[in-house]
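ESCALATION

Customer reports they have been waiting on this structure for their group meeting. Please prioritize. Original submission:
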Amino acid sequence: MPDDQANPQRHIMDRAAKVLPAGGFGNFAADIVIARGDGSHVWDENGREYIDLLIGSGPMLLGHCHPEVVEAVMAQIPLGSTFFANNTRGIELAEQIVADIACAEKVRFVCSGSEADMYALRLCRACTGREKILKFEGGYHGMSDHGMMSLAPQKMVNYPVAVPDSAGILEAVKDSTIVAPFNEPETFVQLLDEYDGQIAGVIIEPLQRLIPPAPGWLELVRAETAKRGIVLVFDEVVTGYRLAYGGAQEKYGVTPDLCTLGKVIGGGYALAAIAGSDAIMAHFDKALAGDGFTYQVGTLSGNPVASVAGLKTMEILRRPGTYEQIRANGEHIMAAGLDAFAKVGLPVKAVGDVTLFDFVFTDKEVTNYRGVFGSDKRAEGRFNALLRERGILKPPGKMYVHHALTQSDLDHIAGAIGEAADIMAAEV
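Update from on-call: job pushed to the front of the queue and completed.
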């Protein structure tokens, strides 16, 4: 049998290597090619089945191809996929976001979280007349130049120096970015004092990648930014409609000036948004903003296909018991992992929320990026590989828990983690 028939995935990977840099899209590892997904499972091009804890990097909170979401999309497609003009479905989605999200009085759609974060920071500068942006080391805010400062620095430098995570970023962006440690109030306030009157906005993931806010941390960030006339942006591209129906704002009870949303709100299709107060969002309105007008357009922004997928996803999430089930799924996996590693005596912390977490291989408390940076990365890579061998598709650094996981899936995951823990302990 020819190799491309015996191993079709290998053949497709070889084709990809000829046309894609590093043989992939730049997202997940290029050593797997997904053919299809259904519910909690995906299949690669060789037909191997996996329980999916990647779920498209988060948007498929209901699992793949939820029948009601598919039905809504299929009903919309014959009516048109995009218009570069207002459409009723997009307006309905904006109305739903305003009803759901504490800070949202107006909404502007884009297609990706990166775009949403970029425009949110532009709004900060437009409405304050200031230039500097403060972000937190290890926080991910998309692929814009400001977003790619001190996301994952491999060399620790003194705060507030920003470290570019990519070639090609202007030196001026580095100079206009202030970097602070997450969950460290004293340093944060000192930096606000040092750069008083210069900071346009503070952007923060309320749950930073996986790291929960310490008690009082978000409240302090909100109070200090409000006192100084600094725009506070919650990056809720990941946490929106995941940590709770109203996102991190609902879960933690803190309301920013702006937030960015993505992933879940598009139901698996390309859609993201900036949402915030009337006064700030008015800078998108040329008739109201004057010299402060912030120009924004996008060919597919607010397209009706993504809008109906998002609306149906939100409708399902509002049903009684949905979030309870998602959280119960996460609690099951978290408890199984902690128990398995405790039995074999390997130091592990479960870091995150039960809807989004991972096992960090360290015996120290993890309160910011440097705690994750100092963990055992070799053990993390080995753990991920052992899960993959056992039919669990998991991204590096996190597990996306979702509603479609069945009891059979949870039992399989627990068993796979137990086997991985036994193997890793024997290798020490």
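Sent to customer with the following note: Residues 322-344 form the longest helix (23 residues).
Escalation resolved.
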